[in-house]
Amino acid sequence: MKGTGPGSVLARFIIFFSLAILPGFLHAQAPPPEAVDWHLTFVGHVTEFDEVKGKDVALVGAVVNVYAGSTLVASPTISSNGKFKVDTPPNSDYILTITKSGYITKKIEINTYNVPQVRTEGAFGEYDVEIELFKMYPGLDYSCLDQPIARIVYNPAPDVDDFDYDKVYLAKVQACIDNLKRLADEAKKRQKLYDDAIARADKAFSAKDWEGAKATYNEALGIIATEQYPKDQIAKCDDELNKQGADKKKYDDAIAAADALFKSGDFTGAKTKYQEASGMKPAEQYPKDQIAKCDVELGKLADKKKYDDLISQADAKFAATDFTGAKGIYQQASVMRSTEQYPKDQIAKCDAEINKSVIDKKYNDAIAAADALFKSSDWTGAKTKYTEASGIKPAEQYPKDQIALCDANIAKAGADKKYNDLIAQADAKFKASDWAGAKTIYQQASDLKNTEQYPKDQMKLCDAALAKVDLDKKYNDAIAAADALFKTSDWAGAKAKYLEASGLKTAEQYPKDQIKLCDANLAKEGLDKKYNDLIAQADTKFKASDWAGAKTIYQQASAVKSDVQYPKDQIAICDKNIQAAKDKPYNDLIAQADDKFKANDWAGAKTLYTQASAMKATEQYPKDQIKICDANLAKAGVDKKYNDLIAQADEKFKASDWAGAKTIYQQASAVKSDVQYPKDQIAKCDANALADIDKKYKDALAAADGLFKTSDWENAK
């Protein structure tokens, strides 16, 4: 809709992360013959995605600069809600830069050239843009963001509000956009893995588990090797381990484990162990040399993986008959390994396929390939080829019948394979004593085939093993804490911990003997004062909602006077409140996911339901919701593919390209065979093509008759 005054519809344009990288495009443009008095108001809204809130929020501290060429012409103020305005005069070419320290910088070009004189007689509506920035991660190449990510130009089309983004410009950069998005996602995942490892390491460090803390700090360092904090903590762990006097054996064990991993080809594991050994003895050269060798081997594996990934992507596109896309990726692989013949052969095959134009040959080739795959029981490959053939000739029944047979065979083979694969994975984790990991995968297998008894039995064994490990750890931790308190003459504290340990393993005599000693010592001290002081401290923490702290002191008070009911009642209330706090993160995630589900944000809802399900693996609700989200996402994909094809076909129809339009209408009809519109348009294409032929015949006959009448027999003939 064209805007002609202040009441015109506001142009709206959302710039998300996917529009991250675009090539340069500035060109000199000549001004119109006469000056005009108008301007375009550009309204920006600078945001970032809040992981906790699960939505975009205003980005505080961002800076906007406006340039004409290399000259800074304005630095608009950003309000507290993230909004700013820029007035752009006619016949100008401005570059907006939006940035914040620690975040990426995005650039947008606003071009107000080529506005018709008749359009400048009325006012223009505001042009709204949402600009999302995200934090920079080390190790990524952001140089492609040096150029603008979008170009806003005047568009005279009747369905556009005056100004719009340049779609042709965007189409040229999609591959670069996708690559940066993928790299940023990977960097974000690495950061999360690093943060999780640091949290676990800090917890072990606080518990004085120096070995466990050091191993986990090394794990974090293996994820992000440039961070100093885990290196400092590893040094502290080494100091503590040195005090315990087991340096040489630990170093030798680490070297032996690293050498074994190196010989087995596990270079990541070997590097971690060599780093552990080097942390114990920084002066030793051997582990440093081996770390360098691990880095060399890991680099080789990374190059091979990148090449293999490119070949896999190209093969997938080749199998899907996207020969242009496949050729581009084969070329990338060939540049990486110029001596490899396979990508060169595939490039030649792509060129051959691209040059094919005869529909019958394409159809017959696809059918032949599909039949061969079908005979070799490659149902997925066969289905892909039959689908390709059906898209070429939608009216043919044979490929449709074969697709149905392929689907039946795929469904039968897929369920058995998926179940067996899950059982194999779970059994491997079970043998490695990873009870929690094994139980999760046994549950998946049981969900797939709920009549099978084996995964159910294995889950029970996992639960029993987890319970025993947890019980032993809790008992040993309680005894260690009690012994430490006993040595400091904290009889009440020691007794509380010995009681806790005795409650965990009632048959053990040691905590019972120690409790008697604690009682004897406590009898020598002023029990009433100590009890009252502990109750006062516990009550203070209780009022401050410090349930864990209050519980610990109530336990100490109860140990002082075990016959008094009050601290026991307060301990029960603390336990109830602690459990409620543990359930809150799960309930909050479910609430956020439900909000996104109600707003039809299926992808966002699925992410949050998946997080909630990982938190409480036995809860069925998030699993059911994930399945519904997947179903809705699949439906949205089919609708988009159909609408995109119809739009392409309509454009060719309007341009009188009857053959081109008919081909794409046939593709759309194959996507949604129950819709009448593409069938009607195919009939119109056929009729118009015949009409064009008839007109050419009549025009030629009329010209010949005219020449015949002038006795121009040669040309008339």
Explain what the structure shows:
- With 717 residues, this protein is of the alpha/beta class.
- Helix content is 65%, strand content 9%.
- The protein has 24 helices and eleven strands.
- A six-stranded mixed sheet has the order 5-4-7-8-10-11.
- Strand 4 and strand 5 form a beta hairpin.
- The protein starts with 10 loop residues before the first strand and ends with a helix.
Quickly list its features.
717 residues, alpha/beta, six-stranded mixed sheet, five-stranded mixed sheet, disordered N terminus
Q: What is the element layout, followed by pairings?
A:
Elements: E1 11-15, E2 40-50, E3 55-58, E4 63-68, E5 71-74, E6 83-88, E7 93-99, E8 106-111, E9 127-132, E10 150-154, E11 163-165, H1 167-171, H2 174-206, H3 210-223, H4 229-243, H5 247-263, H6 267-280, H7 286-319, H8 323-336, H9 341-354, H10 359-375, H11 379-392, H12 398-431, H13 435-448, H14 454-487, H15 491-504, H16 510-523, H17 527-543, H18 547-560, H19 566-598, H20 602-615, H21 621-654, H22 658-671, H23 677-709, H24 713-716
Parallel strand pairs: 1-9, 2-9, 8-10
Antiparallel strand pairs: 2-3, 2-6, 4-5, 4-7, 7-8, 10-11
